[in-house]
Automatic annotation (TrEMBL):
Keyword match Glycoprotein: no
Organism from which the protein derives: Cryobacterium lactosi
InterPro entries named in the record: Isochorismatase-like_dom, Isochorismatase-like_sf, Isochorismatase_Nicotinamidase
Pathway: Cofactor biosynthesis; nicotinate biosynthesis; nicotinate from nicotinamide: step 1/1
UniProt-recorded Gene Ontology molecular function terms: metal ion binding; nicotinamidase activity
Keyword Plastid: no
The family this protein is said to belong to: Belongs to the isochorismatase family.
Record's protein name: nicotinamidase
Amino acid sequence: MTRALIIIDVQNDFTEGGALAVEGGAAVAGAISALLAAHPHSYEHIFASRDWHDAEGGNNGHFAVDAEPDFVDTWPVHCVADTAGAEYHPALVMPESTVHIRKGQGQPGYSIFDGVDDAGTKFGELLIAAGVTDVDLVGLATDYCVRASGLDALAHGQHVRVFTNLVAGVAPGSSEQALAELAHAGAVLATSELAAQA
């Protein structure tokens, strides 16, 4: 069994003060860093995703252009490549070995499986190459990119644990629904105390 930690979109635009701020996002960033500091040997692989949207155009309908965003399928401009909003939150401290995944390059890109590493290799291919069988999922936002990434990980054949104390969502109701959907699909809902058992 090879376990990986997957950190979803802990970026400035998704935390307090950002273009699409999630309440509790900064606290999640700090708590993930604390987890990594407390359990430096629990994970053979760590992957971190970021929205990395194109500055020009609507990213295939993801950005609201010439209309108000509906906050379901269309959104305000956020996480544009090479801007401060697209950078990781400063409280998120990751080891140098972390593999960084960029997603949403011209597309909506909710799931980490939509992304690629710096060499252009798809995330799912990276998991296979590393022999990863089990993943722990943390990050932002519970009801969107965490949900999509978890469902895709299950479809990819991974055993998935979602650390519910290390995620934060856009809204309480949709976040609870997303966690229920993940559990129904086969994910284990747990807390980061289980990281010691990785």
